[in-house]
Amino acid sequence: MERPGLLEAASRCAAIVLLCVSGFAAGQEQATDSTTPAEVSNAPDAAATNGDAGEVAAVREGRALFASHQCWQCHGYEGQGSVAGVRIAPTLYPFEAFSRLVRYTNIMPAYSPNVLSEEQLRLIYAYVSSIPEPPPLEDIPGLDFD
Q1: Which phi and psi (to 5°) does residue 57 adopt?
Q2: Residue 133 carries which DSSP code?
C-alpha cells in the first residue's frame, strides 16, 4: 500500500539532489579563487578580529572553497541553511563529525577525497567555524513588532 504523498516527497528529494549535483558539476568548471559569489567573498572575517594571520588565511581560503564547490547553493552564503540544505554554521560539531557528514552522507551529495581533499575540507570547516552566531531576534530592530 502506497503512503499518501510518498511519490511527491521522493520527487522533491530527487530534484534537490539533482540541483546539488548540477551545481557541483558547474562548480568544477569554474576557477576556485576568482569566481566566488560577492555575498561569500564579502562575508565578515570572524577570525580576523581574534585570530592570527594563519587562521585568517585559512578562513579566506575555506570561504573560496565553500563558494567554488557550490556549498552555498544549498547551505546559504553564511551556512544558515535553506529548503535544500541543513544549517551548518555556526557549527558546534568537531571536525570529525563535519567530515563524516560531508564524506558519508545520504542527505546530500557525498564529496569523496578525490573531489575534496582532506586539507580543503579542513579549510571549509575553518570558514564555517568562523561564522558567528546571528543575533537573537529580540535584538534586531526591524523585527520588533510591538
Answers
A1: -65, -40
A2: P
Residue with cell 555556526: 90
Neighbouring residues of 60: CB distance < 8 A, sequence distance ≥ 6: 45, 127
The tens digit of pLDDT for each residue in 82-106 reads: 999 989 998 888 999 999 989 998 8
State the CATH class of domain 8-133. mainly alpha
SS3 content of the chain, % helix, strand, coil (to 5): 55, 0, 45
Q: Which cell is 26 given? A: 558547474
Domain boundaries, the chain: 8-133
Q: Which residues of 74-100 are buried (b: 16+ CB within 10 A; e: fewer)?
A: bbbbbbeeeebbeebbbbeeeeeebbe
CA distance 75 to 88: 7
pTM, entire model: 0.64
